[in-house]
Amino acid sequence: MSARNDHKANQPMIYQIRIKGHLGPQWQDWFDGMTMTLEESGETVLTGPVADQPALHGLLKKVRDLGMNLVAVNRTDSDQGGASEVKGKEDKFIEKDFYKRSIEMNSNTLALENDKMKNTTNTVSPLNIGRIAGLLYLTIIVSGIFAEFFVRQSLRVTGDAAATAGNITASESLFRLGIAADLVMIMSDVALALIFYVLLKKVNQSLSLLAAFFRLGQATILGLNLLNLFAVIQLLSGDSFLSTFEAGQLHSLAYLFFNAHGTGYSIAMVFFGFSILVLGYLIFKSGYIPKILGAMLMLASVGYLVDSFAKFLMPNYASYESMFTMVVFVPAFISELALCLWLLIKGLKVQPEETNK
After folding, report:
1. Average pLDDT over residues 4-10
2. Same domain, yes or no: 105 and 240
3. Longest CA pairwise span in the chain (Å)
4. How many CB atoms are located within 10 Å of the residue 32 CB?
5. Structural domain tally of the chain?
6. How far, CA to CA in Å, does 354 sit from each of 44, 289, 308?
């Protein structure tokens, strides 16, 4: 009898973890060794052997990371075919301890004070993070369109350095406002890169990190590229140290730096194109963001890349510029605005799409 008890003590305990909502089949591998059962009540039951309490807490942490609601944790009696549930004090302690651990994120602490649970009300929920992302995306769209189209395109006269210089001098405040709008766009892009990484790393952490790096690369280039616009302001400022240059020369130099900014912008768009290509793929595979939004972003990324490389490879690009602009602007505006509005209206809760929907 004693040998039999020792044998049972060395065997892994069988646990049932009950979760509110249905997990998609793509998450089966994430809970390795556990059997996933989808019940008609709308709950998912994970059943399987658990070696010890640290292993159990590891499983519960995965449930929490998915943003799913934990209903119950039960140990089953394997001698009775796993059918009977033993809901003892130990199971209640495990559930309570799990929620404490989710507050402190301290894997070495198994008992925390009850009043710490109140702090969870002050944390940013996944839903709020999604809406913050939407707000940042809207800021990027509005400030980017304003700076590029309502400021620079309205002041630039193609092929006429003198007229362009005159427009900038007459509307210097507007020109500087465009630079400020670009800075707001760049800072929002940096924050958005981090948020998208956090929201999509569950799909594929490496690709999510790659998308963030591409977006940060774009932001870095755009920030440095603003130096060209400050050079334009300096050349047209009329400072005494520029007296050795004739007016026509200053206008030409200002126009040169203005065009250099456009080239730098195209280089940045290559990084942005690859960023939203990876982002679109992650969204398409996520299961918790509509697939159509991911597909639209991937289509828009092709437009960005085609337009940028056309500028680098085609000497007569100016003859087709309006066509390429439409190829880029229309799908990009529709796809990015659609994602922005979806994030603002729906928000984003990081959990797999329920299979019964």
Report:
1. 52
2. no
3. 105
4. 8
5. 2
6. 10, 12, 40
